[in-house]
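User: Structure tokens for both sequences below?

Assistant:
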Amino acid sequence: QVQLIESGGGLVQAGGSLRVSCAASGRTFSSYAMGWFRQAPGKEREFVATISPNGGVTKYADSVKGRFTISRDNAKNTVYLQMNSLQPEDTAKYYCSAKYYSGIYWPRTRPSEYDYWGQGTQVTVSS
């Protein structure tokens, strides 16, 4: 099993940057693809970014492509989401998720495809 704890959320002005982190428990972190999702009040949870177990493959939602960067440090059991050029529309609670892979990897973008979830960290972008 994997336990996930997000951190690094906060309040930032439009145009600013923020990096959120997700620390994972367990001894097989490198066997999990990791994802970031976000959910704003009144909206469904939406895909933001995902990264393959070895960090070699990433995929982003069109809305954040070019602004956000997902990365991971398997030695630290941590995945990051660097968010630049933040806009008020990015305001949401950001959730870290993990999906176990025992075979060939391909990116997953739906919440139902992930096995474990953190409690989320709030990111608020003011105008």
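Moving on to the next sequence.
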Amino acid sequence: QVQLVESGGGLVQSGGSLRLSCAASVRIISFNRLGWYRQAPGKQRELVAGIFSGGSTNYADSVKGRFTISRGNAGNMMYLQMNNLKPEDTAVYYCNVKLRVGASYDYWGQGTQVTVSS
């Protein structure tokens, strides 16, 4: 069992920056994909940034060039640096660890609210 806790959300003005953190209860050495998702009211949850097993990263088109996903060297931290935030980025952001392919191997944090004002 992997427990994940997000932090770093808050209220910022358009154009501002936030850095989200995800702390895992264990060191994640082997995985299928690490990622950050977000869910806005009335919208489906979407993957905004991911780190894959080979070390590559991928971003949703809506955040490409503005968001950066990274891992801490110790192996139990993950971050999402968000720059040039827009009101459309307002959502609850979730940390996700997929150890293997399959829903039973997914672990989720409780979410952290990000609100961007105009």
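User: Anything stand out in the second?

Assistant: The first strand starts at residue 4 and ends at 7.
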